[in-house]
Automatic annotation (TrEMBL):
The keyword tRNA processing does not apply. GO terms for cellular component: nucleus. This is NmrA-like domain-containing protein. Gene3D superfamilies: NAD(P)-binding Rossmann-like Domain, UDP-galactose 4-epimerase, domain 1. Residues 5-261 form the NmrA-like domain. Pfam families: NmrA (PF05368). Belongs to the NmrA-type oxidoreductase family. The lineage of its organism: Eukaryota, Fungi, Dikarya, Ascomycota, Pezizomycotina. InterPro entries: NAD(P)-bd_dom_sf, NmrA-like, NmrA-like_oxidored. Keywords: NADP.
Length: 329
């Protein structure tokens, strides 16, 4: 039986957990000859509740998950981790997931985090080449068109720069694949979800559609890509379970949950749109992505969406809501 070591950054987050769960519980395992995977989950704090929760979730695979302490901004520590994995059988793959600032951050936060994301990713890509990693999957973001200059916020621009860096390293033997997730359906959960509902309702033009995806499905697609990396080497897939405007989102929520979707008062959304650079950028990029889709400004997008759907079946928004409802007490 072949054992494949896979390094995962962002392992305790939604995408990382979804990836690990899909990789350790494959739906398409080909009997006893199928490879098994050993996960090296890199996290800043190995004793954090999130790290403990990851081991609890995958209790039956406890021996297949190692929680490894590592600050992603520390290039020397990252090199030590790669060396350790190589000493225990080599590195088959790496799944790179890095944080995105989101609605609550200002322009300065975005710029600083964007630069940090870029430095870390470049270091990981360089290590992947140096240590002869067989497959690298990078989780990016859907750009508002194929032109890098179309980006709005610093972190989105950074992620596009990282994509370009991965692609340029293909000439040096890097077997890269890019996963571009849509807007997380989970972003409509809880207090921040109520803010997101109000901000998108107020900020987007009526009829503008968002590409939505359940975070666990991103992990499933990324796992499928790394399991079949020969098929997806030097390719980009865009992960989306469906395309919806805000009226459709709110209608589906009411039909499934039997009540109106929680939302902040319109005046608070208006203030957020006026005062928060982060909120402005999220809304502007969502608008630009939609306009690029309908105008043909991103001609390969639909093909990339279909490529992701070929990896695994994904949940639409209504299915995701039904699953959430079943879990409610």
């Amino acid at each position: 039986m072949t054992i494949r070591n896979v390094i995962v950054t962002g392992a305790t987050g939604r995408q990382g957990q979804g990836f690990i769960q899909a990789l350790l519980n494959p739906s398409n395992a080909n009997g006893p000859t199928a490879p098994t995977y050993s996960i090296w989950a890199v996290t800043r704090d190995t004793a954090s509740p999130a790290a403990t929760r990851l081991l609890e979730i995958e209790k039956s695979h406890g021996n297949d998950i190692r929680i490894v302490q590592g600050d992603l901004s520390d290039s020397e520590r990252l090199k030590q981790i790669f060396s350790q994995v190589v000493a225990e059988g080599g590195i088959f793959g790496i799944f790179i997931v890095l944080p995105y600032p989101g609605l609550g951050n200002n322009g300065g936060d975005e710029e600083r985090q964007g630069k940090a994301i870029q430095r870390t990713s470049f270091a990981l890509v360089d290590l992947a080449i140096d240590f002869k990693v067989e497959a690298l999957v990078y989780s990016s973001t859907i750009p508002p068109g194929p032109d890098l200059a179309n980006g709005v916020d610093a972190s989105r621009l950074a992620k596009r720069e990282i994509e370009l860096y991965c692609k340029s390293m293909g000439e040096k033997g890097l077997n890269w694949s890019i996963v571009q997730p849509g807007i997380f359906m989970e972003n409509f959960d809880g207090l921040m979800g109520a803010l997101a509902v109000s901000v998108f309702s107020q900020g987007l033009q009526k009829g503008t559609e968002m590409l939505l995806v359940a975070s666990e499905d991103i992990g499933k697609v990324a796992a499928g890509v790394i399991q079949n990396h020969e098929r997806y080497t030097h390719k980009t897939v865009t992960v989306a379970g469906g395309s919806y405007n805000m009226d459709e989102v709110k209608k589906a929520y009411k039909e499934v949950m039997g009540k109106n979707m929680p939302a902040f008062p319109a005046i608070l959304a208006w203030l957020a749109l006026k005062l928060s650079v982060g909120v402005q950028h999220v809304v502007q990029d969502t608008e630009r992505i939609y306009q690029a889709r309908v105008s043909g400004g991103y001609p390969t997008l639909e093909e990339e969406i279909e490529a992701a759907k070929a990896v695994c079946e994904m949940q639409d928004f209504r299915t995701w809501l039904l699953k959430r409802k079943e879990k409610q007490p």
